Amino acid sequence: MSKKALIVHGGWDGHEPVKVTQLFKNILEDSDFQVEISDTLDTFLDKEKLLTLDLIIPIWTMGEITQEQMWPVIEAVAEGVGLAGCHGGMCDAFRKSVQWQFMTGGNWVSHPGGDGVEHVINVKKGSSPIVEGIEDFTVKTEQYYLHVDPAVEVLATTRFPVVDGPHATNGPVDVPQIWTKRWGAGRVFYNALGHHADVLEKDPIPEIMRRGFLWAAEGREIARKQGAKKYENLKRMF
Asked: Residue 164's closest CA among 97, 126, 89, 113?
């Protein structure tokens, strides 16, 4: 039986959300997903519909999300629906929402040097089947500096500084770029790369995204079989 995925795109056009949506749609359909695409956050209002999904992919840089739109996603993921995404579409979305950041595992703060910075993505060997057999690779794009939840499972990092700036006086630091996280019964996957759609087309990124989508979606079936806990007082955490 095919898995079901929902892609919701919008926000800042500079990250080419429509092109990225098509790339991800192709990857998902090649992996036998049924894919629904929406360009409105109101799609999130129907929690019962979200609970029928295996995977939610937000591609929505910046913008704002209402409490009514956000809580069904947070609750559905906690009950087992997978969440996956890339770059600004997931961890530079809804900057005013600390609840969203808590669920996704991090948030964007800077890209020193802007676009076109050549840097290495260092794969953490043995961290996950998502990166099994994938070697370190070099990209030339924005280098993404994030504030990251210490609970995430880091799959790949990049070393700062490459470009000089006030951050450089702290010395070398390895900032997570690819990670997984658990949110209740749900699985969360994130890849910081993807400033433009063409970055996501370069090997090994399509394969990393494919594996990440599958890993996140697999959590829904496990939750169905085991019986996912319902977090009745989730809003009291904030």
From this structure: 113
Tokens of 2: 């095919």
The answer to whether the predicted template modeling score (pTM) of the entire model surpasses 0.90 is: yes
pLDDT per residue as tens digits for the range 90-145: 999 999 999 999 999 999 999 999 999 999 999 999 999 999 999 999 999 999 99
Identify the CATH number of the domain in which residue 71 sits.
Answer: 3.40.50.880
Give per-residue pLDDT as tens, 178-193.
999 999 999 999 999 9
Helix (H, G, I), strand (E, B) or coil at 80: coil
Structure tokens at 108: 């964007």
* Cα–Cα distance, 115 to 112 (Å, whole number): 9
Residue 176 pairs in a beta bridge with 157
Cα gap 201→194, rounded to integer Å: 9
Q: Looking at the domain assignment, is residue 129 inside a domain?
A: no
| CA dist., res. 156 & res. 25, Å (int) | 24
